[in-house]
Every structure is written in structure tokens, then in C-alpha cells.
Amino acid sequence: MSYYQLGVVKRHIVRADRAAVEKLSRFGVATIHEAMGRVGLMKNYMRPIYTGAHVCGTAVTVLLQPGDNWMMHVAAEQLQTGDVVVAACTTDNEDGFFGDLLATSFRARGALGLIIDGGVRDVKDLTEMDFPVFSRAVNAKGTIKATLGSVNIPIVCAGAYVTPGDVIVADDDGVVCVPKAIAQKTLEAAIKRESFEGEKRDKLASGVLGLDMYKMREPLAAAGLKYID
Amino acid sequence: MSYYQLGVVKRHIVRADRAAVEKLSRFGVATIHEAMGRVGLMKNYMRPIYTGAHVCGTAVTVLLQPGDNWMMHVAAEQLQTGDVVVAACTTDNEDGFFGDLLATSFRARGALGLIIDGGVRDVKDLTEMDFPVFSRAVNAKGTIKATLGSVNIPIVCAGAYVTPGDVIVADDDGVVCVPKAIAQKTLEAAIKRESFEGEKRDKLASGVLGLDMYKMREPLAAAGLKYID
Amino acid sequence: MSYYQLGVVKRHIVRADRAAVEKLSRFGVATIHEAMGRVGLMKNYMRPIYTGAHVCGTAVTVLLQPGDNWMMHVAAEQLQTGDVVVAACTTDNEDGFFGDLLATSFRARGALGLIIDGGVRDVKDLTEMDFPVFSRAVNAKGTIKATLGSVNIPIVCAGAYVTPGDVIVADDDGVVCVPKAIAQKTLEAAIKRESFEGEKRDKLASGVLGLDMYKMREPLAAAGLKYID
Amino acid sequence: MSYYQLGVVKRHIVRADRAAVEKLSRFGVATIHEAMGRVGLMKNYMRPIYTGAHVCGTAVTVLLQPGDNWMMHVAAEQLQTGDVVVAACTTDNEDGFFGDLLATSFRARGALGLIIDGGVRDVKDLTEMDFPVFSRAVNAKGTIKATLGSVNIPIVCAGAYVTPGDVIVADDDGVVCVPKAIAQKTLEAAIKRESFEGEKRDKLASGVLGLDMYKMREPLAAAGLKYID
Amino acid sequence: MSYYQLGVVKRHIVRADRAAVEKLSRFGVATIHEAMGRVGLMKNYMRPIYTGAHVCGTAVTVLLQPGDNWMMHVAAEQLQTGDVVVAACTTDNEDGFFGDLLATSFRARGALGLIIDGGVRDVKDLTEMDFPVFSRAVNAKGTIKATLGSVNIPIVCAGAYVTPGDVIVADDDGVVCVPKAIAQKTLEAAIKRESFEGEKRDKLASGVLGLDMYKMREPLAAAGLKYID
Amino acid sequence: MSYYQLGVVKRHIVRADRAAVEKLSRFGVATIHEAMGRVGLMKNYMRPIYTGAHVCGTAVTVLLQPGDNWMMHVAAEQLQTGDVVVAACTTDNEDGFFGDLLATSFRARGALGLIIDGGVRDVKDLTEMDFPVFSRAVNAKGTIKATLGSVNIPIVCAGAYVTPGDVIVADDDGVVCVPKAIAQKTLEAAIKRESFEGEKRDKLASGVLGLDMYKMREPLAAAGLKYID
């Protein structure tokens, strides 16, 4: 299964380790992205359709054609509990590929949410269902079912390369993809990173400056920073 | 009265049938757009200024000049109960053409809401008034009153052609214009479309796949879809 | 200290009069912008990260480099109670320059909020802290600390020229900068402007038309407006 | 034939008067737009694919579906000598709907050029053919032939309402649509407008100021303009 | 070497077969993209800096940091005759990462051109050198050399996934990436596709309609197309 | 005269030293921007209306109102030989504020070109006149003459702060503003910077790597760069 192979559905994919996924779900997108070495984010035009939406699961990927959501139905059959559907399109298109009926179907098959580099509709219903969706746009525009794309091939979604089974985490700050091969390592780095946060926050709250806490004064002076009255 | 005739106000317009408008107000924008044959939507950059905003009424149209909201005051006099003001501009301009004072005046004259391919301000007040506005932008930038546009001529608003008296429906999914000549027909199609939704939703919720419910497996195979392990 | 001088921090700045700032905080951005003669606004892509965010204070300015938030830490030390940090970048960049740790530090030093022509992250935490941020984008993308910018030099932020100590007011309608030299005069104009609003609102609510209240009928006729049946 | 009726082709359309069209072709888009009362322009994202492209003819309209250029072939059969194809899409889509083969076919049928609110490709070939195209984008992305749109219905193209048979003029400054009903009147206004241009240009070239030539000093003073040393 | 691994340079990469690359260079981007099954294109915001720019070669990839072009110098050492540098950034950034000095160096090392999802400068010099560059932007903004990215790792450039050694073809229509594993197969499909073009063009030029040549009348009727007088 | 004071024209402004301006005109925008410390650029959406446009002169500033070019005529009277008009607008507006008649007038008064954060028209004529214009957009949309802006006040144009009399340089790479106070210093830095370019170019052309010429290998290793086979 190669990148952008059209007209295929891969039935058996290797999903990231369930335990690692669950542990990663406790971390924010910003923390995970830092733990990966400041990479892995989708473009920041991907926004939750309602405030507070959050999802963490394993990617089932979909490659759509413009104005056509046929492959979303094909993808539904490949879903397992804990999956997140990640949908890209072969071109820039903001039509409403997804609404409350597909959300009902996806949830019945075990899916936790949707990440789509396209448009969605029925946002009021999706919000009431508390079905987390992160999309490029909201758009009432309907789609047809006429042209083949693919399911469970590697895709590029909103600038990020996603392989089926990768870990997807999304919250108010954006969407990050953790390749399954580094899920455990990323988890460990995230835990370590977060362990220092409480102490730092307390210090800063007490009025200690980052300049001192992070020992920045010397490098700033070395870089030539000048203070003037 | 022709499209883009400047400096005129049409006093008597034919509004869509009141009963049809009221019945259409129960349907979502996505459903109505589908019922029309997947047409009639404004561009999806038109967004509600607060979550949950909804409006359905008959269009009183306004053609504005950039940075100038004079015609909004002229339009106020033409309003009747159940109208929705639909405002376009002769060029792309996101100035704040509308605020709480005009909303107060529009409401006093019977208007239900505003659709504007431009900017609005006082969004906090408008939200407290629960006055539904769908706009291209929020912008504190004020306007002047110096150049003539028109009221109740056919206009193009956010990509949609709107004739005075047409039905306008707007919700979280976007804005649709139903030409008054097809309001009744659209209503019937919407009713029919929605009548199947409950049953479909129940089936999908029980785990039935769209692939089976919509009998897609055969056409997918005919199109050449391949399943791989 | 001139515009865009890099590598400097000005320690002593003249802040706008505290009493005028406090009085200005009671007015909306649209009103203040009108009181200044319809100028002073930042671009309308600057949006609050949560509905209802509001801030009014004196500007401590920061000039950032792309992908680098070093100067934010330098700025923290220059903050006094009642300040608002106003951050621009030497190029268009939407990385996440700011999050909950910096917010904690800024608040501990007396800052009331942040205006940034760039991205921010940890928006859930910032919302819970009720720390008002107006930004160009939300973005989980992290930054480094490697290149000098400046603190407390005049900057251009989102199209507005901001001098350290100027008054910054931001609400749901946008962000305005009131030069400290005209803070008092602007306040007076705002008070005067607002004093007429209540009466106008009552009249409009009673059904009086703006056409009559503002005596527009004659100038409209002079401009050539035609009424047609 | 109404606006946005899908699945239809109108064979007999009323074209603007040939003589008027030919005379209009001598005027620039800016002049014609002014002659119409400063209306009629398409959005300024519509750009020629090569410098110096120019076209003036009668509109044959096409409504496309996203990623689908089937209707372009249907339109070819409806072309007559002197026509310009004007193509819009039911949604925002920049796929490459048009290339050198279709240009060859359109030209063979008498078409003079293409205006398309979408993408085109083979721009090198089109440039060599000197086939004028004004589009929203250049894009190598191919399209399919699967879904019906319409030919020769009224459409909205790049913000302008175009009826089959209207006059379309396009040059380096943009694209304007002159409704056939006002083609003659617009022509006369353009002739009148242009008749003054040479004299004005000579005066300005000699150093006379617009302030004096247009007698602006008095209205400027009345508006309150102040000169300071 | 995995996708988005920072701080590494891969010295030995497998380049696509030289003979296939040379043969592919005779085809346009649109043809190659069709030959691949309508996939592989970069976003259409990637434009040549001068009309007529064309390049075909094997990819040496670079991952840049915002405002930092250090890795471009590192990449220069890895170039071989026939390479094309393909540069992406860890975030959206349009700074001028590349100018005439780097072009001189790249050319001296054998590179044929540059594809960059960022900005470039010195476009006059680059044009005089006839050094083909396809970029997201032109921007005089300079960059620093402070933070590590990578060279010759798989990257996502303007929406396309590019592996070191893949074939890159760029012309006035856009940029396409042909994975080296399918270069030969793509070449054969392109040859086949193009072999029919001349005959088609002749037929269309003689006035034969695509409707007849492609036998579209029956499927159009089956789809429900109606002709009206 | 303060920033954004409306309704005023300053007659006597201090222009940058003529000799320095003339010497600066020999340098490219990228070089000057680097010589200033990598600051001073306008946004990179400012583009020449024809390839090869170049201008260097002293700024006469104009603040326009949306859809209104009245102040352009007022500015004409303030022009002296060697000036460049720099025009901003109180809001984002891409109307065609400028065409060949104004260019004729400006040239007759000694102006060398125009920088405008707005639209222009008559680009064919302007190109034939070889009148350099750098603008945000090309747009046939006409404007009115009804509302006061200002002439020769400090303005923000495309993100850059411009004071009357500053040096403006524009070429294919963009537009830079050199404050008159640092024109001489910037000139010296530009001369110094350029003096090394020839030697560098020769070395790079001979195959020497920037890695060696700039002695980057050690800092790269220190930063942790790893080479892999």
C-alpha cells in the first residue's frame, strides 16, 4: 500500500499500542508536539467545530475526491473501537463531506472522532452528540458518491503525513499525529516534560522571572541585548 | 428593477408565501440546500456571530458602497414583519456596517435578522439581544453615509443571487437562499427528505453500514474498488 | 529608541495616565475608535481566544523573531500592574509564541492580557485562567529562544503603530490603540458619543426611523435616490 | 431557465447586438465599468494567464461541479462565432477544468476565450495559441466527467451575475459583464467618457493639477481639509 | 531515516533511474499527474518565479526551520548532477530562504533548480541565471543560521510527500512528485497518454465535438441531461 | 503631525539627503533590508505590476479612505522631483485608486513611482509609460472623491511605518522603507555588505561550499547535526 494509491481499501492495519494511546490521551497537543521534537502538527487551520472538543485514537485514513464522500462509507466498515477517522482530499475542497448520519454510523462502529481536511455540516447535531470533529471548514454543501479514493493508505492531511494506525491527538490547540513506531518514546518524553511543569508554574506564579528560572540573562547578554533607560 | 441598478429603492416587493416560509424554518440549511438539488448556498465564509444563531424569513436586499452604511437606514423603512435584511457591497469590504443601534431599529420594524457580506460590530450587544447576524467578518471599523447604493434590487451576496422576497434560511451550517418561485416545491422536497432520516439514523446507530443500507457494494466493485489484506 | 531597532530593551517608559485608562476601560472598542476619528484599529484578523475576553491597559511592546519567543521572557521583567503586552513579529508567523506558563508569569508581574500578531497555545488553560488574549491564530507549534528582538520600542502590530505606554483596549469587536498623548481627549469624545446612545436607542426601539432621526431624507434626495413602486 | 437549475442545456439564447459588442471591444474594462455606473466587475482574483490577454464577446455560460469538467464539452456544441465561455462552479474549486485540447475545440467552434472561476492548465500551450483565459488559478489537477451541471443558465461567476448572451470584456485590469439590455447605453457612456480623456491627459501632463482641473479646492475646504507647514 | 526526524543528514540516497528521469522531462506536469492516476501534485500556490521556468530532476530534500536557512548550506554538499532541491519548513513561513548566492552554489554542485514551500529573493538575478525556482512566495526578508533541520529525510512539501531521490517535474502548470518506485511505470503511461493527443487535437481543431469523439452523448442522456430551446 | 491625524496636509517635509537616496538606488531591496538589520520591509503581498519595475525616492505619504481616492489628487500638489507616493488606507480595500491619468499627473510633478496598499488599474498603460507601481492588487474598480484622509502624515503601509521624506526602495523582491535618519548609515552598511558578494559568488561558483566558506561545520556539529549513510 503506497502513498496516494487510488481505489484500494486495506483491511488489516497495525494500530499503535492501545495502552500507549490511552496514556497519550492525557496530554495536550502542544506537549506531545514538543515531546516529538517540535514536529508532527497539522496546519493550524484545522479547528474544532465546538469549544472543548478532544479526541485521541488510532488513525483509519481516507482519501476523498472533491465533492464526493463515497469513501467515508467504505471507511466505516474498517473501523474498530478506539479509531479516529483521518480524511484528506486529492485537492483543496471545503464541501460538507460529513454530517450527523455518518457520525452516528462511525460511533456505532467504535470511532471516537473525525479529523478532516475539508468541510463538515450538521454542526449543531454533532455538538449535541459530543462527537469531536476537527475540520478545515463548516459547510452545508452536499457531496455525491461517484469516484473512488482509498481507505487505509498513507495520506497527507493538512500538511501532516499520516499512516494508518498512527496515534492522532486533537484538542483546542490543534491536531498532532504520532507515528506508531514512536508512540511509546513520545509518551515517555511527554511524561518527563510535564513533570517539570507544575514546579515551573509555581515559581512563575510567585513572581520568579523566566529570565532567572531558565538562566537566560547570560546568553541574552552574549547575544548583545542592551538595556536602555 | 434590474441587477446592480444604483440609487433606487423598490417599495413594493413580492414576498414568498408566509406559510411556506414558516414551514421551511423548521429545516436545517443543509437539508434545504439538498432539497433544492444541492444549490443556493452562500459562500461558507459567512458565519454566525454567535453559536446557535438561526433565522428564516423573506429577503429585503441592500447594495452597499465600501465603508458606507447609508443604505442600511434606507432599508429600515422598507422592512415588514418576518423580513431578513440581506446586504452585499459593490466591492470586497469588511468594515463594520452594522451594530446594535441598527439592530434595534431593524427589530422595531419587524426584521428577524441580518445576512451581510461585510463586517459587523457590537457583537456582544447583538448576542445579548439574540439578534441573529451572519457575516463575513467582525470589525469595529466605522462607516460613513455619503454614497448611494440601492434597496430591493436583485443582488449577489457571498456568491448567491438573491431577489427581494426570496426565502433566506441561516443556521450554524451556513446560509441558503430559496427563490420564492420554488419555495413550496423546496419545502415538499425537504419534508420528503427528512422523513427518511429517522429510520436511517436508527439503522446506522444499530451498526448497519451505509454500504449495505445504500446498496453501495455493487457500484463500488463496478468502479474497481479493491480490498487488500 | 526608534522603530524597529533590534536588540534593545527600554526600561523606563511613560505610561498613559492611569485614571484615563481606567475610564476608557468602560467603553467598547467601536466607540473608542469612533471617538478617535475612526482610526487606531488593528486588523480584524485579531480575535479573542474566548468569547467575552476584554482588556484595557498600557502597552509594553515586544518585537519577536519568527519561531522565537525569547523576547517574551525579557518583556516579563518590564511589566507593571495594569500593563498589556503587545507583541509583533519581524515577519508573518503564526507559531505558538505564548502559553499558560508565560501567562502565569505575566499575571504575576501585573499584566492584564496579551495582544499578539502571531499564534498562541494552551487556549483551554488560558480560558480557565480568564487571561484575555487577542491573537492572529491558535497554534500548538512551539518556539525556540535564539535570536534577539526588542522590548519597548515602537512597533507595528496587526497594522497599528503602537508606542510603549499607549492605551490598548480590546473586546469582542477588535483591538484599538489610543496614543497616550490623546488618551484624555479620546476619553472625552467617547463620553460625549455614548451620552447620546441611550436616547437614540429608545427612539429606534419605538419605531422611529434613522432616516428621520438623523434627518437623512433631504441629503438622500439631493444625492438622487429614487423610490419606485 | 432559472438561476442554478441543474441538468439543462439551453440551445437558443439571445446574444447582445454584434455591432455593440464590437464597438465595446475597443474600450478597457475600467472604462466600461465606470460607464455602467461603477458596477458589473468580477472579483479581482480573476487574472489573465498571460500578460496582454484581451477578449470581448457574448457569454455562453457553464455551471460546473467540483473536480468535473463534463459540461465544458457540452458547452462546446452551443458555441457560435464571437462567444466567450463563462464558467462557474457550484462550490469553490481550483482544479484544472480546462487545457489546450478544450481550447482547440472551443476555438474551432468560434469561441474567442474563456472566463472561469476555477483552475486551468496547459498555460504554456494556451499562451502560444494566444487563447485568452482569465481564471482564478492555474492548476495541473485533472478532472472527471461524471456529474451534470448546466449550460446557458444564468450563473454567478466570481461575484458577478451573468446571463447567457451578455457582453463579457476582459483585459489586464479584470473582467466585466455588461447585461445585453444595456450594452448600447453602456457603449454610449463609454464613448462619452473616453472623449474627455485625451484632453485631461494633456492638461495633467503639462503640470495642471487635478485639484484645479476637477475644481476640488472648494469642496475640500468645505470638508474641512487643513494645510499645515 | 523517518519522516520529520530532526538534526540528521543522509548522505547516500537512492535516486530514480537517470534514463527514466530524462525521458520524463519531456512531458508536462499535467500529463505526468494524469499518468500517475491524477495524484502527486503539490498545492497550486507553488508558482515559478519567471514565466517558462521548467525543471526535472531527482529530489534532495531539506527540512527548514522558520526564518532559518542553515540547512540549505548543508544540503549543497549532498547535491549531485541532476538533482533538484526540495525544501519544506516545519511551519508556514514565507521568509526569503534562498537567493542568488545559494543558486550559484547549488548550480556549481550540479543542481538543476529549487522547489521551496517558502519565500525566495534576488528573483531578477535568478531569472538572468535562468535558475528555475518554484516557490510559495517572493520575499526580500532575510534569514538566520541557528537551528537544525534535516537533509534527505522524507518531507511534506506544499501538500506532497517527497522521499529523497524521487523525480520532481515542474513547469508553468505546477509541480509534481513521482515516487522513484513508479517512475518507469509513470513514464510508460505518459507516453501512451500523449500518443493519442495529436490525433485528438486534429479532430477537435477540425470541429469534431468532444461529445462525439469521447462518445459522451449517451452517458449524458442517461444522467438526465435535458436540452431546451 | 501625528500618526493617523485625519484631514490635514503637511506642506513642508524634510526629505532624506538626495545624494544618499541616489546611492541607495543602486542597491537591491534585499541588500538594503539586510543592511538595516533585517527590518523595514513591507508585507510581501506588495508586488510590482510589471516585471522589472524599480523605484527609489523620498516618500510623500497619503492616507486614503476605502473606495475613495480624493487624497491622491491632494498629494499631487505636494510632490517634488524624486518623490515616491506611498499610499495606505484606513481599512483593507483593494479598489482601483490609481490609473494612467493620475500617473501622468504624478510624473508631471516629478514623482518617480507609487507604492500603494490597495488596488490600481490601467496596468497596460502604466506599463507602457514605464511608471513603476507596487501594489496589493490590480482592480478595475473605480473610486469616489468624498471623504478626507491626509497627506504627509506618518502612516502604516503594508505593515511598515513610513514617515514623510523617508527613503523608499522597491524592486522585484519587494519594498523597503529606510527612515531618513539612518539613510546614510544604511548606505554604508549596504556598500560594505555588497563589497564581499563578488568574492563569495566566485568561490561558490567554483564549487567551494558555504559550509566551508562560512565555517559552519563546527557550529553545526556543536548543535548536534548527525550524518548518516
Q: Explain this structure to me?
A:
6 copies of one chain form a homohexamer. Chain A is of the alpha/beta class and 229 residues long. The first copy, chain A, is 31% helix and 25% strand. The first copy, chain A, contains 9 helices and 12 strands. In chain A, the strands form 2 sheets. In chain A, strands 2, 3, 4, 5, 6, 7, 10 and 11 form an 8-stranded mixed β-sheet that branches. Chain A has a two-stranded antiparallel ribbon with strand order 8-9. In chain A, helix 1 runs parallel beside helix 6. Chain A is elongated, with a radius of gyration of 20 Å. The mean pLDDT of chain A is 97. At the B-C interface, strand 1, helix 3 and helix 4 of B face helix 2, helix 7, helix 9 and strand 12 of C.
Q: What attributes characterize this protein structure?
A:
homohexamer; 229 residues; alpha/beta; eight-stranded mixed sheet; two-stranded antiparallel sheet; 9 helices; 31% helix
